[in-house]
Structures are given as structure tokens and as C-alpha cells.
Amino acid sequence: MAPRWGLGALIVLSLAAAAVAGEIPRAERRSGYEFMSRETRAMQDDDTANPAMLWVLEGEALWKAKAGSAGRACTDCHGDARTTMKGVAARHPAFDPARGRPISLEQRISACRVDRQGGPPLAYESRELMALTAFVARQSRGLPVDPAMDARTQPFLDAGRATFHRRQGQLNLSCSQCHDDHWGRQLAGNVIPQAHPTGYPLYRLEWQGMGSLQRRLRNCLTGIRAEPYEYGAPELVDLELYLMSRAAGMKMDAPAVRP
Amino acid sequence: MSTPSSRREFLRTAGGVAAVMAAGLAISVTPARATSEAMKDAIRKVVGAAKVTAGRVKLELPPLSENGNTVPLTVSVESPMTPAEHVKAIHVFTELNPQPDVATFRLGPRAGRARVATRIRLATTQTVVAVTELSDGSFWSDTAAVVVTLAACLEDA
Amino acid sequence: MAGALINVPERARRGEIVEIKTLISHPMETGYRRNQSGARVERDIVRLFVCTYNGAEVFRAELHPAIAANPFIVFSTIATESGTLSFQWTGDNGFSVTESAAITVD
């Protein structure tokens, strides 16, 4: 079977890239939604047809279910998610004083399960964690991306930015080369988006299931033939933080559908 | 690779295999995939010796699909959907998937409207065929060609 | 997984054609994929979807592996009388899910 990436095409791509990538001007930022076909957009727009809604509904049920040794449900502390979780996904990754660093929404939910409900951590990409994350993220739909940033998050933001601009992998490409310099161009039959995480967690047609931003980032790293960081790795969370800050002000459309 | 017009030729006449062979077309066969042959057999299993005429049924698929895992499909038939005159079934087939059957939808006068939508998988760029069976025993068909692209940046399988 | 998502209007006029949208959570494993060690992953699909309206069958879909994961099916039925629309999905490995929705017909 032919390799999915024509190496020749990739070499041309990397040589053609500018020496230093500039960030996309705010006015030119476009959501991944806009790069999709009409049919895929229709799949996302209709809550009765969006496969991600299966996870949102399950998440809603889990929100009300008692869990862990404390026998507590999310709702016991957080009440109605429609009110209390509004804007939460739009603000993550957020600084966690207990851990001394920003953590992702998935990490936050799993931490709550352990610390407040007295249960085992929720495994990354597990059905339960994806359902709860999708349900929480749904409450931020339509709100602007607005990660909570201050002096404490600065070093992690800088690390994330550095990762985004660093050449990696056997193909020696940086995220920035595709997503800042060559967005809108074709790659393996799809259009390169700008890499804004407004839709996460999302239903990726390629996965035929729900996944987190970290899952997608690991796919990107595999794509450039780099060793993907482990789920929950600081490099991934820092990158998430940088991507959210890069998308600040853009509308959340979670849980989205993407090819 | 046979052309769309020759497929319509087949569907107009019984014994369509003979027509295709006569046209001297090469049908490429890859071990992992069904061939137009398998699709023809699958259609024959449904229609038997009956004639299949192009028309009445409309198959809607995007001409270019972003991901072959999920391709939206709508199939509809012009029919009054009365007890006297209605759609009994709509069958969907693919030419080059590992096996040709996709789905059979069984309707009837209680449907009110002969229109079904779903999402299908397409293994590669290919043709999709819909065959409808009406209450009078007649069979009608439509075809649609879809280009299937590969996503970039995949997981290791 | 939240088994199924069904969209049916709660009310309809007698004789009106209502559109019903259904989504069921299921991987629709084709049986053609291979796992890391090269062994085939066995087929595991939803094979049949049936809709009944106050007990009478009004729609049936026979599915094959070419139906995408998390099968989505949209069809229509005439609102004949108030009552219950029942939806059943059955498939490999004893898969069986039944959901219902009430409809009021004026």
C-alpha cells in the first residue's frame, strides 16, 4: 500500500517554509469547522445527527450518578451543569495550585473523581471520561475561548509555544509550518486547518469515535513521525494551553465533528 | 475500469454480464476488494431475472468525501406511497467495498414518503448503486460516483 | 454509551408525515480490520433495525458492515394515531437495544 505521506512532497513543503513562522493574524483566524465539507458541517450542526451527542447524553447520565467511596455525584457539588459548567471548558487548561501547573479539562474531571468522589482515576480516552468531558464541554458551546492565564501560567504557555514552533520527528516539521504557514493547502486529500481546538472533545470520522485534543495531537506527532508524548504529559498540556491562547476569542463549538 | 454509461447499459438489460464483456472492458480486481462482478451478483440475487431500469429512484452522495469512514447518503423514490402504488424496498450496493451489500430498507404505504438517509463506509473511490423494488414488482436504479480521500495525520493502526 | 438518540416529534396532525431520526452507539466492526498482531478483528455489527407503531411494523433496515459506526438512520412514517413508536436494534453477539417514544396525534 502506498505510504500515506509522499516523502518527496513533504521535503518540498519543509524547504518552502519560511525561516520563522508568524502567528496567524487575529482577523484571519478560522475554525476547523470552516475547512470541512458541507456534509460534515451538517453532521455537526444537527444535535439529533451529531454522533458526539451520544457521548454528551451518557455524560449527562454520569453527571447525576453517584460514584466512588464517597458515593457522590457530580451534581451533588456542582448542581445543574448547564449553569455551573458554563465556560469551564473554554477556560481549560487551567492552573491547578495543588499540582503547581495547568491541567487539562480531562485531568480536572479525573482529579475530581479521585479527590472528591473517592474513586479510581478515569483512564484517558475512556468512554466514561470522554462522556463527562463532552457533557461539560457542551456547556461552553458558543462561548469565546478564554484560557485563564496569569504569571503562574506564563512559563507553561512559553513551553507550549516553543513546542509548537520546534521541528520534530523524522519529517523534521514543526506544527507551525503546517498550521501557521500552510493552512488552507491540501495534505493527503484533506485541507490543512489552522489547528484551533474550539471543538474538543470531538467525534473524528477517522476514529469513528470520540477523542480528546491530546489524542489528536498524538496523531499529528505520529504524522510527522515523531514519538508521541504519553497522554497527560506536560508537553501535551502545555501545547493545549498554547493552542487555546492562540485561539482566544474564537467561539467554542464542542463537541464537534471533524474528518 | 468500466464507465458509468456501461453500468447503466448493464442495468437496463437482463444478462448484463454479457453486455459488459461484449464492450471489452477491463475490470481491475484487487484481492482485498469486491469487483463490479460481486456487485452484479448481489444485485441479481435481489432482482432475479427481472429487468432493472434507470430512473424513479434518486441516490444522493457527496461527489467528494472527506473521509471514507462516514459518507452521508440519502435515497428517495418518487412514489405516491399508497396501498396500490408504493415502494416495497430500497437496496444499496457498492462496487469496490470488500463486499457489495450496504443495506436494505423495507418501506410500505405507512412510510408516507420514500426517503431514507444514513451514513455509509466507502473503502475507496467508487460507484454506489441504489435499486428500488416497487409494489408492482418493477425494479428501478440510480448510481452515484464518490471520490474518497484519505485523512492526514492518522493513528498508528 | 447512551444507547440511542431518537428524534421524533412529540405531536403531529393525523395524516402528517413525520420524519424520524435515529442514532445508535455501536462500533460496527466490519470484520475486515486487523489488529496489531495481524489477526482479524471479528465482525460485530448491528444487523437489523425495526420500527413499530402501536405494534405494527412500519420500517425495517437490514444493515451490513458498510454502514458507518454509530449507525444513523432517518426515515418517515404517517402519524396515524396517538401511541408508541418502538425502535429495536439487534446484531451480532446478542446485541439488542429497544427504545420507545410516545407520539400524540390530533
Write structural notes for this entry:
The complex is a heterotrimer of chains A (259), B (157) and C (106). Chain A has twelve helices and seven strands. Chain A has 259 residues and is mainly α. In chain A, the strands form three sheets. In chain A, strands 6-5-7 form a three-stranded mixed sheet. In chain A, helix 3 packs across helix 8. Chain A is globular and about 50 Å long. Mean pLDDT of chain A is 92; it is low at 14-21. Helix content of chain B is 18%, strand content 36%. In chain B, strands 1, 3, 5, 6, 8 and 9 form a six-stranded mixed sheet that branches. A three-stranded antiparallel sheet of chain B has the order 2-4-7, with no helix packed on it. The longest helix of chain B is centred in the N-terminal third of the chain and has 12 residues, at 36-47. Chain B is globular, with a radius of gyration of 16 Å. Chain B starts with a helix and ends in a 9-residue tail after the last strand. Chain C has 106 residues and is mainly beta. Chain C has a single domain (4-32, 41-105), classed as Sandwich (Immunoglobulin-like). A five-stranded mixed sheet of chain C has the order 2-8-7-4-5, with no helix packed on it. Classes of the chains: A mainly alpha (259), B alpha+beta (157), C mainly beta (106). Chains in contact: A-B, A-C, B-C. At the B-C interface, strand 6 and strand 7 of B face strand 5 and strand 6 of C. Strand 7 of chain B pairs antiparallel with strand 6 (72-78) of chain C.
Helix content of chain C: under 10%
Largest sheet of chain B: 6 strands, mixed
Order of SSEs of chain B:
HHHEEEEEEEEE
Strand content of chain C is over 45%
Q: What is the CATH domain class of chain C?
A: Mainly Beta
The CA-CA distance between the termini of chain C, in Å, is 35 Å
> Which fold does the CATH topology of chain C refer to?
Immunoglobulin-like
N to C succession of SSEs of chain C: EEEEEEEE
Q: What name does the CATH topology of chain B carry?
A: Immunoglobulin-like
Catalogue the unreliable spans of chain B.
Answer: 1-32
